[in-house]
Structures are given as C-alpha cells and as structure tokens.
Specification:
The complex is a heterotrimer of chains A (100), B (293) and C (388). Chain A has 100 residues and is mainly alpha-helical. Chain A has helices spanning 12-29, 57-71, 81-84, 88-99. Classes of the chains: A mainly alpha (100), B alpha/beta (293), C alpha/beta (388).
Chain lengths: 100, 293, 388
C-alpha cells in the first residue's frame, strides 16, 4: 500500500479497525478489569460524570500518553484535546486525521 | 503531651470495602483506608478532626511503575496515574477525601519511625483540633525486600497499616509519652546498643507501675542487645501468650502500638506498655501506653 | 503563636546563594529560569527551570538534595551550636530521588547489584538524618512530605513546638530537579514550555525549580537574652484540606480559605492587618483562579498587595514553602514588595490586587505566605517583621 496516500487511514475499514484498536488500548492502559473492549460503544461517552465507565481526568491523561506513544501523534496543549476524548469515534477520527 | 486513645485499627492486607472508590485505589492506600475506617468506627460526628499519615516509603510501587513507563516509552510518555500515586501525600489526600477530613492533613516520612513521629505530630495537633487520626502504612515490594535483606538478617519484611484515633477526655487507654531521639549512626545501620541502651533503661526507670515492654527487634543481634538491657525480670510483650509478632517494615511501629493497645485492653488491672522503636540511621523512640480501666 | 523569633536564615535557589543575593534578585525582578541542563530530558526538550548554578552545589559526595540543604542550613545556623537537643523539621517531596532514579534507570527496573543504594536515598526521611549528622545536631527529626506545602508545614510545626516549650528548631525544606518530577508534571500536562506566567491571562502551566531554605527558630526571650539578631517572627500556621478531588483544587478554594483564616487566627490578627500576600501562584490554569477566589473570600474587597515569586525561582515543590517564607522575611526586613515576574497581562477572572511591575518600596509589618499542595493540602504562614 502506498503510505503517502492521505486517505489510507480514513477508509471505513481502516477507521473500524482503528476504533477496535483504541478500545483494546483503553482497556489495557487503564486496566479495566470488568470491561471487554468489544462492549464499549463507538459513540459511548467516556468521561462524563454519568458515563458507565466512570473515567476521571487522570485516566484521560493516561490514555492520552498511550495514544501519543502508540500512534506517534501529539495532542495540542491548548485544551482542544478534550473534544477528541468524548468517545472512541471522536478519538479515532482525530488519530486518523493527524496520521495522514 | 498526652492524649486518650479513642480508636484503633490494624490490617495486614487490603480488606474488602464496598465503596467502589476504594477498590480502585492502589494497594498502599487500600491498606491505609482499611485501618483508618476501623479506628474511626463508632466515632461521634461533628468534632474537628485532623489527619497525620505516616509512611516510610510511600508509593514505592507507583514510583517504580512511573520510572518504568518513562524508561520503556520515553520521558514524554510517563504514566500520569503512576506519577500521581508516587507522591507521598496522595494517600493522605485520598484518605481525607474518603473520610471527609477537612482539618489539617499532614504526611510524615521518617524511615522506620514514621508512625512514632506521626504520633508526636498528632499530639501537637491536638492543640489545634479536637481529634487526630494517625495512620501509618507501608506496602511490600521486591525492591524494598531486597534492600532490607542487603542491610542484614531482618525478621521478615512485611506490609501493613495501623491507625490510632487520639482525642481529649477520659478513657481507659492513655498515650502517656512518645519521644524521639537521634543518635549518630550511618544511614545503613541502627544505633548501637551503647547509644540506645541508656535511653531504653532510663525509660523503664521512669515508668511507674506494672509494665510490659515491646521490643523493636529488627534483627536477631539488635533483639539480643535489647533483651540484655531489659534484663531477665522484665516482661516482654512479644513473649506473652497470644501476642502477635509483627514483621519489620517502616510502619511496624504503629502496628505494634495497636497490637499492644489491644493486648492492654484485655488485661484487668493497671498496666503500661513501653514500646521501643529503632530506625536505620540511628533514630530511636520510646512510647508509653497506659491502661487504667 | 507569640514570640517565635527567626534568628537565622539560609537560602539557595536559581537566584543564587544567601539572603543578599535573593534580596537583589527580588528588587531587580530578575528571573532565574533557564533551559534545563542538569540531565538529558530526551524527547521532552530543555524547558525553562529554576536550576541551581553548578558552582553552588558542592562537589562533595552525597545526594544533591543533601548538598543543597547543607548549604542553606549552614547559613541559617551561622556556626551556632546548642547545649540542649532541639528539633529538626524538613519538608521535601522527593528527597534523594535524583540518585535513586538514576540507580533505577541504570538497572531498568531489574533488582540491581547494590539495592541498598536505592533504599538509602529513596526514603525521604534519610535526608533529614543525613543533615542532622552532617551538622552535628542532637534533635528530634521530622520529615514532612505534603507535596507543595511540605516545608511550610515543617516551619509551622517547628514554630508551634518552640511556642509551646521554647528551645530551638531548625526548619525548612529542599527539593532537587529530577527526571521523575520533570516527566511527571509533563504527564499531568502542568508543565509550561515557556517561563511560567502566574496569574496571567495566557498562563500555560508551571516551571519547575529546585533549591533549599532554612530558618533557625528560638523563643524571642531566649534570643534577646543571647543578644542574637531577630530577623522576623513566625506568628501563625494554618493547615486545612479540601477533601474535594484527588487532583483538582476545590473550585472555590474552601481549604485555602480555611488555611489562611486559620493562620490569621493563630496569629491573633485580622485580615485588615496583612500588608502583602506571597501567593502560591504556580501559573497553572486551576491553581491561580482558585487561589484568587480564596483570597477574595478571606479579604473581602480589600485584598492586600499580592504577588507570586515562582517566576523568579520556579516551583521548588517541597522547598517552596521555606524558600518563599525566606523571601517574605526578606521583603519584610527590606521594605520591598516584589512584583510577579512573568505576569504581563493579568487574567481578569482572578480578583487579586497585583503588585505593580518593578515592585514597590514600602514598610511592611505582616505577610501571609501560601503553599497549596497536591491532594488538596493547603497551608498558610503568617510572618512579621522584627521590630528593633
């Protein structure tokens, strides 16, 4: 596959695969014992107080570092990172967009 | 300065706690919460409460985990959670949050006399708040165990947490004295018997009435020297039937205190316990607990 | 508290060594923040930090924190020795971490050849013992480790002991730069890539620093009897916990308010008697606004002149309480209020009465110094000028 193809990371298949990887990364990084990656919804809210997973600001930072390391991407420091962390879907969209 | 002992708690392993915020805590903090809850059980509400948390090594596992994360991934990718948990004071912060303590909250780290130093700080704080909860906790780790072994044949290094609630007013158990001394000794050694002996003998001389002594006994050699100072007539708590021998770790001093207190509460008449503490680096403590039913 | 006299001071930081050097640096508003050189930060880059000049860290053996502490402690002691045992209370967050992390990273987590090396430096209580031995002091030893308020609590505790029973107390704190805290604060996204800007609209986080400061405390009566110079007084110590959240400060500064009010009550003073507040002022988005709200609640509409000195020294973590207490005492004795170095455009959401750029020369009698730590620990000290 031509690695300079900018849309390579954004095909539906690629995004689906990325979402699955991110769910796996979330469960492993945060050591969630009773949660299976496949049970996390694509658009499920991750960090709100009512969220099922009940993740806090430290978990967010933990996940951020793991994503930055795994995918060699950087979230900006100006506070916009927060929007990307709403759900697996928004995270995948961000990672795909900066990878290309 | 003296105080009444109003509550006691001790755990040697994390206990089950129905609060989901507790189950997600690191091991060290779960030990501390277990002991703290036990000591606070039955405490009346509304009195002002302070907290002194004592730990010799703090979140050693978390420190290792953080350094591991930067060494394997790079300085820019450290684990935020591990860093936060490696801060000595984060345990005290968590305790204050879970137990709703808004008074002064302090963390003391004084090697193997952390608990005793915290008792002294707690006694001082009683001038400012009505009650003080003193909690000591240390977790076992392979690095710690290997390190202690490198220092000499210590009685098995273990882990645990203890908690003591101090307050005013009458009661059958009194913390009569808690004193700290420092003797010149290398950071890898305990104070020699020629230094700790006179203080220990002195404290026996000034403790009136029936008494039993709890020895520090970190190594066989030091135990032998302690017993020599005590002489054959002195009752040693660790020799009494039913007494629990506590393993050596930085919070063991307060664990021994709680065990001694519970032992005293089973006795009928007036009885005092003189607790001897020793730390690497030459620290020594003498604590006197008195039961007057 | 009454009559707790300061009879010795010592300080070493990115601004230099000794009281005179710090007085000059404060007057000039000259920052000590410079790109890190102490260790290689790898992919993180050499961010501005308050690093102590290599020439000031003695080349004797022993952990960096001990060498820094000794320099400052010797200044405070001024060659004094004591007949009776006293009290040594020190605040630190990481003690000998620079050496123990080096050991750990060398062995990459595997149990190393000499594990005593790891354990010698890691427990922060070792530092206090090493200091006591090196200074030949006979004293009860206490090591406070309450994150950023560590040495403020050590000072308050030592002062309370002297107020209660006389005698002497050597109190203060130390922290060195380390990979642990550098990478750690970066992981928490609290580390600024440019020199910190406390209370500024565009503040982006803290700049780390290192250093040590010590105060020698004695009862005023004893100091006068000896003819020792009295450099100031510690009048109040307040300490309170937010009990709100593991990592974020209470949004309305409940714990901070209680600590400042507690310190003033301890000093028997009312808020109107405070001339200057040396703020915690770390330049993190959360701290500065919470602190501003807390000050507004304590002082009503009459906030005293307030500044943060962390733009000069960096955030020296466990040493901050002591370093800033010494800077407050220097301000009191020299009649000079420092401005907030690094502040260019004040955040309108923070209701603070800023010291004008360049600082102000005016007589001061009472200063409040704030130190707010991780884990919701809030400590305030009240210091006052020596009246000759």
């Amino acid at each position: 596959m031509d690695v300079s193809d900018p849309t390579e990371h954004s095909t539906p298949d690629a995004l689906r695969a990325l979402r699955a990887e991110l769910k796996e990364l979330l469960v492993t990084t945060l050591r969630l014992e009773n949660v299976k990656p496949e049970d996390i919804g694509d658009t499920e809210l991750l960090f709100s107080p009512e969220a099922r997973l009940g993740l806090d600001s430290l978990s967010a930072l933990e996940l951020l570092a793991a994503i930055e390391f795994t995918y060699k991407v950087r979230f900006s420091d100006d506070g916009s990172a927060r929007e990307h962390f709403q759900s697996i879907s928004t995270l995948a969209a961000f990672v795909a967009s900066v990878r290309s | 300065m003296t105080a009444t002992v109003r509550g006691l708690g001790v755990v040697d392993a994390p206990v089950f706690d129905p609060d989901p915020r507790v189950t997600r805590l690191p091991r060290l903090e779960r030990l501390a919460v277990g002991a703290a809850r036990e000591a606070l059980a039955g405490r009346g509400p509304a009195e002002s409460l302070g907290l002194v948390f004592a730990t010799g090594y703090g979140g050693l596992a978390a420190t290792e985990a953080f350094l591991q994360s930067v060494s394997s991934r790079g300085m820019g990718y450290g684990s935020a959670t591990a860093f936060h948990q490696s801060v000595h004071h984060s345990s005290a912060g968590q305790l204050s949050l879970l137990l709703g303590i808004r008074g002064p909250v302090l963390t003391i780290s004084q090697r193997e006399l952390s608990g005793e130093a915290a008792l002294r700080v707690g006694l001082m704080l009683l001038e400012r708040v009505e009650q003080v909860l003193v909690v000591a906790a240390d977790e076992q780790s392979s690095a710690l165990e290997a390190g202690y072994r490198a220092f000499g044949s210590l009685f098995h290094a273990a882990e645990g947490a203890a908690a003591v609630l101090l307050g005013p007013g009458p009661g059958p158990l009194r913390l009569e004295r808690c004193e700290l001394f420092s003797h010149a000794a290398s950071a890898r050694r305990f104070a020699p018997p020629s230094r700790f002996g006179p203080r220990l003998a002195d404290s026996l001389g000034t403790t009136v009435g029936n008494r039993v002594v709890s020895i520090a006994a970190p190594t066989a050699d030091v135990e032998h020297a302690e017993r020599k100072v005590l002489g054959p007539e002195e009752r040693v708590l660790e020799d009494q039937a039913g007494a629990v021998r506590v393993g050596f770790h930085p919070s063991a001093g307060l664990v021994r205190f709680v065990r001694a207190a519970r032992y005293l509460l089973t006795t009928q008449g007036d009885l005092a316990c003189v607790l001897h503490g020793l730390a690497l680096g030459g620290g020594q403590s003498i604590t006197v607990l008195r039961h007057e039913p | 508290m009454r009559g707790v006299a300061v009879t010795g001071l010592g300080i070493v930081s990115a601004l230099g060594s000794g009281v005179a050097a710090h007085r000059d640096a404060m007057r000039e508003g000259r920052t000590g923040l410079r790109p890190l050189t102490l260790f290689s930060p790898e992919d993180l880059g050499r961010l501005p930090v308050g690093e102590v000049d290599a020439g000031l860290v003695s080349r004797s053996r022993g952990p960096r924190c001990v060498r820094l502490a000794l320099r400052a402690a010797r200044q405070a002691l001024g060659g004094r020795s004591f007949e009776d045992p006293g009290l040594l209370a020190l605040g630190t967050t990481t003690g000998g971490i620079l050496e123990s992390e080096r050991h750990f990273l060398k062995h990459r987590g595997g149990v190393g050849a000499d594990d005593r090396a790891l354990l010698l430096h890691h427990p922060v209580g070792t530092l206090t013992g090493a200091l006591g031995r090196a200074l030949g002091l006979s004293a009860e030893e206490y090591t406070f480790s309450t994150a950023c308020s560590s040495s403020a609590n050590a000072i308050g505790f030592g002062a309370a002991a002297v107020a209660r029973r006389g005698g002497w107390a050597l109190v203060g704190g130390v922290d060195s730069l380390s990979r642990l805290t550098y990478a750690g604060f970066h992981a928490l996204k609290l580390l600024a890539s440019a020199p910190c800007r406390p209370f500024d609209r565009h503040r982006r986080g803290l700049s780390l620093g290192e250093g040590a400061a010590f105060l020698l405390l004695e009862s005023e009566a004893e100091a006068r009897r000896r003819g020792a110079p009295v450099l100031g007084f510690i009048d109040g110590w307040g300490c309170a916990s937010d009990a709100h959240h593991p990592t974020a400060p209470h949004p309305r500064g409940d714990g901070a308010v209680a600590a400042i009010q507690g310190a003033l009550a301890d000093a028997g003073l009312s808020p109107t008697q405070v001339d200057y507040v040396n703020a915690h002022g770390t330049a993190t988005p959360a701290n500065d606004v919470a602190e501003g709200l807390a000050l507004e609640r304590v002082f009503g509409g009459n906030c005293p002149l307030t500044s943060s000195t962390k733009g000069l020294t960096g955030h020296t973590l466990g040493a901050a309480g002591a370093i800033e207490a010494v800077l407050s005492l220097i301000a009191l004795s020299s009649g000079f209020v420092p401005a907030t170095t690094g502040l260019e455009e004040a955040d309108p959401a923070i209701p603070i009465r800023h010291v004008p750029p360049g600082g102000l020369t005016r007589p001061l009698s009472v200063v409040v110094s704030n130190s707010f730590g991780f884990g919701g620990n809030n400590t305030a000290l009240v210091l006052s000028r020596a009246v000759a």
